[in-house]
Each structure stands twice: as C-alpha cells, then as structure tokens.
Amino acid sequence: MRLIIVLFFSLCIAYAKQTKTPLAVEYVNPINFSGLWYEIARTYNSFEKNCVAATVEYKLEKNNNYSVTNRCFEHEIDGKLIVYNGTVQALEKDNMAKIKSTYFWIFSKNYQIIYLDDYQTAVMGDKNMENVWIMNREPFLDEKKLKDILGMLENYMNIQEFIFTKQDKNGKYK
C-alpha cells in the first residue's frame, strides 16, 4: 500500500511538471508582421550557436506566405556574416499566428506567435517550447517589458534556458 501511495504522488508530481503549451495569439496580420525583427533572446538551437546581432526579416509574398532572411554575425558584431534564407507559410488562411517554417527545402517546423504587442514585440515558439524567440522591432527591449514577458513565459518553460542576444546599439540591418 505504501508503494502505491509513493507511486501515486510521484506520478502527480511528474504530471504537474509537464510543460504546458501556451495558446497562439488569436490573429496576426500578415502585412503588419512583415519586416525586420531583432532577436532579444532565444533558447539554444544549433543553427545560431555562435550568433550575435541576430535578426529575422519577413518579406510578404503571394498567398500570405513569406520569404525569410535570418542574419547574424559569428562570435562578434562585425564578425563573419551568416545568412539563412527560408520560407514561412500560414497554417490558417490569412492569419500568421500559426506558421510552418522551411529552410533548405527539407527542414520544416511549426511555430506559433504566443505574444504580440502592437507588432513591435513578439514571442514565437514551437508547441513544446523548446525553440523560443523573443523579438523586437528595435535592437533593445525595455527592461520592464522584457521582465513581463519572461514572467509570462515562466508558466510554460524554464526561462533560465534563454540566451540573451548581443545586439549592435544602432541595429546592423536597418
């Protein structure tokens, strides 16, 4: 009986620690989301291993799809420029809240916008919250707003996993 009780509580604790998935924002206008976004913070991913001054630029194409250009410098600002091009498709008609990103024609992953503040600040992540980006239209984000976003994300992930992106004070890609 004692073993059953211990097992029951262990399962309850394990279930409570499962990552919750945040809901996507209700609507993301394809035109308003277009343009340059500066990476404020990200979770680890191999394709940005040594990146600083990272940005992503969404260019609206036909059928509310985007061509995407990711840029960063390797190790230091003004280091070797790294550029990745890809595409993004809306998973819902005329709404970019849930998207499919494709790079090199074969690597695809679904993401959703889980936070959007007047098309100036956004948080994008996959459903498991393993790949998450905090993005802003300017190279830096107000400290209070960043703290509020991290507080919201704390409900879904370990925010200690974030890597804060070093940005150029003037923005390198304007």
UniProtKB/TrEMBL annotation:
A lipid is attached at residue 12 (N-palmitoyl cysteine). Keywords: Lipoprotein, Palmitate, Signal. It comes from the Bacteria. Residues 33-153 form the Lipocalin/cytosolic fatty-acid binding domain. InterPro entries: Calycin (IPR012674), Lipocalin_ApoD (IPR022271), Lipocalin_bac (IPR002446), Lipocalin_Blc-like_dom (IPR047202), Lipocln_cytosolic_FA-bd_dom (IPR000566). A lipid is attached at residue 12 (S-diacylglycerol cysteine). GO terms for biological process: response to stress. Residues 1-16 form the signal peptide. CDD domains: lipocalin_Blc-like. Belongs to the calycin superfamily. Lipocalin family. This is Lipocalin/cytosolic fatty-acid binding domain-containing protein. It comes from Halarcobacter ebronensis. The lineage of its organism: Bacteria, Pseudomonadati, Campylobacterota, Epsilonproteobacteria, Campylobacterales.
